[in-house]
Amino acid sequence: MDRLRRIRQVNDKHHLTLLCRDLSELANYAVVDNRQYRLMKLGTPGPYTFILDATKEVPRRVSHPSRKTIGLRVPDRKGTQMLLELMGAPLLATTLIAPGETEPMNDPQAIRERFEHAVDAVVDAGACPLEPTTVLDLTPMAGGGDPVVMRQGAGSLQAIGL
Q1: What are phi and psi of 14, to 5 degrees?
Q2: Residue ranges per structural domain of the chain
Q3: Looking at the domain that runs over 2-153, which CATH code has it been given?
Q4: pLDDT higher for 25 or 3?
Q5: Does the N-terminal peptide bond of residue 108 adopt cis geometry, omega within 30 degrees of 0?
Q6: CA torsion through residues 112, 114, 115, 117, sign
């Protein structure tokens, strides 16, 4: 977690994301009501990151410090799903936007060349999509409100009924 934040040069208020295998695993790390679940079901697996209230299973240093929320995602890429299955646990992730850049990095070779000194390994499952996920804050839904689009990305809002 500290290394991810250091590489991205972001502070502890930047949401990190737990990549989960499926919605049932996701429910271990977030408080999810029926409205939130129905919306997430439409977008998983897929290019959506959902901000939700974290459960006690999420270490404090991983969740947002003042809001006690966490980003959660069920990826649709086969290589990532295989890695999650192999690990048997969620992985902590962030969109890799290098310091001083505005676009995310997606080429494993370029990532290795730039960051091999800062990470233990780079898993090459091919280039990932260049466009980052759509990030939706679902916490207002718990009080009857609507989700808030934090970042419009690869995930279509229409596909999930927004």
Answers
A1: -80, 125
A2: 2-153
A3: 3.90.870.10
A4: 25
A5: no
A6: positive
